[in-house]
Design goal:
With about 140 residues, the chain is mainly alpha-helical. About 45% of the residues lie in helices and about 5% in strands. It has helices at about 1-20, 20-30, 35-50, 75-80, 85-100; strands at about 60, 70, 85, 110. The relative contact order is 0.13.
């Protein structure tokens, strides 16, 4: 019973953290080398998310690109937290290009976007609103001096 509860807690934690991590852990439970199986399943599911997410209205921000818009940390990429609606990604890229044109050498860093599947998934885990009162997409832009 303790083992079942422990694995349930791991699944809930990984799902809240990465959305697909819980499923990867469930798949890993069928193997003797769970950590290796978890890593393999997570990589496969993350790759599948790149292909499937556009059908849910999400696209991933490229994690390894140089330019005016960059993901702040590789940990957001590993946790699958770089997915946005296409129109929001376009607006963010335009804003980053405008700032880079006005202040040469400036890089706009994306801190956290969202999960690949569904809007409002585990909304309790985030404290930043994702939409305006009118229901349209919004951006939160910060300046660091």
């Amino acid at each position: 019973m303790i083992r079942f509860v422990g694995h349930g807690m791991i699944v809930l934690f990984l799902t809240a953290l990465t959305q697909i991590g819980g499923l990867a852990w469930l798949l890993a439970l069928f193997f003797r080398r769970r950590v290796l199986a978890f890593v393999a399943a997570y990589v496969a599911l993350a790759g599948a998310a790149l292909l499937i997410a556009p059908q849910f209205g999400r696209v991933a921000v490229t994690c390894w690109r140089d330019g005016p818009l960059q993901v702040q940390s590789w940990s957001y990429c590993l946790a699958n937290r770089t997915y946005l609606a296409p129109e929001l990604l376009s607006a963010l890229e335009d804003a980053a290009e405008d700032v880079a044109a006005q202040y040469p050498g400036t890089v706009t860093q994306l801190l956290d976007a969202g999960f690949p599947f569904g809007n409002g998934f585990f909304a309790i885990a985030t404290s930043l609103p994702r939409r305006r009162a009118q229901g349209g997409p919004c951006l939160l832009l910060c300046r660091r001096w």
